[in-house]
Putative ABC transport system ATP-binding protein (Saccharothrix carnea), 558 residues
Amino acid sequence: MKTVLKADVLKRAVTGQWRSVTVASALGAAHQTGEAAVPLLIGVVIDEAVRTGASGRLALWIGVLAAVFVALSLSFRFSLRNGEKASHQAAHEVRSRLAARVLSADGGAAHGRLSGELANIATSDAQRVGQVNLALPIAFSAVVGVLVGAVALLRVSWVLGLLVLVAAPVLLGLAHVLGRPLERRSDAEQDRAALASGVAADLVAGLRALKGIGAEATASQRYRVTSRSSMEAAIRAARSRAWLDGSMLATTGVFLAIVALVGGHLAASGTITVGELVAAVGLAQFLLWPLSIFSWVNGLLAQGRASAARVAEVLAAPPTVPPGSSPLPPSVAGRVELDGVVSGSLRGVSLTAEPGELLGVVARDPADAVSLLAVLAREVDPDEGTVTLDGVPLSTVESAALRSAVLVAAHDADLFEGSVRENVEAGGDRVDEAMAAARVDDVARALPDGLDTAISARGRSLSGGQRQRVVLARALAAAPPVLVVHDPTTAVDAVTEVSLAAGIKRTRAGLTTVVVATSPALLAAADRVVFLASGVVVAAGAHADLVADDDYRLVVLS
């Protein structure tokens, strides 16, 4: 299966750029034909000058030679241009497919992989897959060069031509055999490099926390070990490449020496002329490039196959949950119901959020909140029970339609690199209303360029409270029929918390909202509150009534 998927990645990379690859191959073949013609023309010039001494014919052949060089220059330039174009465009398409798969509503592609590892696959591996489109025209040109050179040598001497025709397939087979270790080690090299990138990104993201607990030395040691493993894999791959190049260069050198010796013997015996000897030696030197290029091309193809396998693993990653196929009705009322849900730490939860209701959910155990959010976002399907939206089981709804109808905003959601305004606009169209509800105006006043202030990736340049408010505004701007927010006010002061609670209630009027939190201000604004303990619903009602319960009061007011 892995081999089939790898072949499909390579096939799509090539067929998607077949026009540029074809043009590059044709121009490359023309270039190699011209290169092979140069030694023959030089031999003709020498024979014409020696045999006749006619200056006019000599000038004619020199002019022909000059025209060939002009054609050589143009064909090489445009062949390389089209090959590079096909390479970069194929790499771009592979990156686009990877991004689409990672961002797919079905999920699953990032499971078990660090973000840095995915970035490495989308950059280095995608580039190596794209380079197959550069290797193929060059390989075709090399084959044409060998064939043209062999035919040209056949005209000079059938012995020399036959020697090339027999040796070329042998050299091609040898390059393939010698390239197998490089393919294996290139795969290992990319695996180690991706892991090192992932660990580095992971450490950078958690650097503040690491410093806070004094774990810098442990983290550094972890990266040092990973980086050394990556370096050793890269060295092994480089040794394989050096062995491949060196072996092929030595083999082709021996072969060309044999051609030169045979040609010299034929000239000495009078079988060929001086001009033909010069042409034969020139053709032998010309053949050095197409023969030696086989090892370079085989190296690119070996690396491309290894990278294609890694790309295929991401593209073929199974979805987190089985995809549904049913559409939602054009107008979603927003009634969410959990019936006997058993999942994670939940042990038979039944609750309902009515259309337009602001429902508060308090979980005594944080694990219950995490499990509840997972089933509402359909990151997992319940082991038992059902979760429905307007009576339709979430497990049957098409993923993209579900994501547009139900938005689960995690409390630790990341911001994008860009301005504050751009981050909120990424949510949807109700930007001004959302920013007012989340008090992003207060955030803007504290920043040098207000809403146009650029923030770093993941919003690390903002304080915790500022980041929470921008994340909340982005979720409110989306205005989905059902919005689930988790602890959106843990990093703000009490006054701001009350204001945010009022803003959420005002902005989400008429839309279903589930707030999973322990904030008294948010729960006081809710129409109804459900209290979870030990994985089940133990109480439900207004916040003002539930505070009489000792367990509830301990969780909310502690």
Notes: The chain has a mean pLDDT of 82.
